[in-house]
Amino acid sequence: QFIQVFLIKKFDYTEMQLGLFVAYFAVWVAISQGVFLRFVTHFATPVKILLYSIPLFAFSFYAMSFPNHHKWLYALLPLLTIFQGLTFPNLLAILSNSSADNVQGEVIGINQSVQSLATAIPPLAGGFLMTLSPKAPMLLGCYCALMAWIIYLVYYFKNRESFSEEEDETI
């Protein structure tokens, strides 16, 4: 959510340049959802995809914070959108698959509420972090994604047998 401020502070982006960057971002979101997600889900289960997509999503945040020339952002942005596009739908798939039929709607609703709350927090934290460094919000995004991956790994290894059963059912 703070990429626009980052681009203005670090690269003196104009409104036109911001518009083009956001349009480029939107194209890659569509490609990641329409092409990469469809392709990868034919070969791997959501459980396996998340083992790799979450840390790669974190790495993408990290990498986006360091370029000294804005053209590198155009090269790195597809990575961020692809791994974001692989992570969030597969998290939702795991939630849906691991919920009993009678509470599935409730679980998905709670997930949506948590995601809504998560989109409210970055502007609060990011505004403060931008005073420290323009890249600080992206580094925080990297840190949060890594924390999410650690939580996922703990949950995965704790519930490995039930994940194996789910994978057998989906294959």
Summarize the structure.
The chain has helices at 3-11, 15-41, 46-64, 70-97, 104-132, 136-158, 160-170. The protein has 171 residues and is mainly alpha-helical.
Overall 3D form: globular
Largest sheet: none
String of helices and strands = HHHHHHH
**Runs with pLDDT <50, length 5+?**
none
Beta-strand percentage? Answer: under 5%
Number of E strands: 0
- Assembly of the depicted chains: single chain
- How many H/I helical runs? 7
- Terminal Cα span: 37 Å
Radius of gyration: 17 Å
Structure in words:
85% of the residues lie in helices and 0% in strands. The chain has 7 helices and no strands. The protein is mostly helical and 171 residues long. The radius of gyration is 17 Å and the shape is globular. The termini are far apart.
Features:
mainly alpha; globular; 85% helix; single chain
List the helices and strands and how they pair.
Layout: H1 3-11, H2 15-41, H3 46-64, H4 70-97, H5 104-132, H6 136-158, H7 160-170
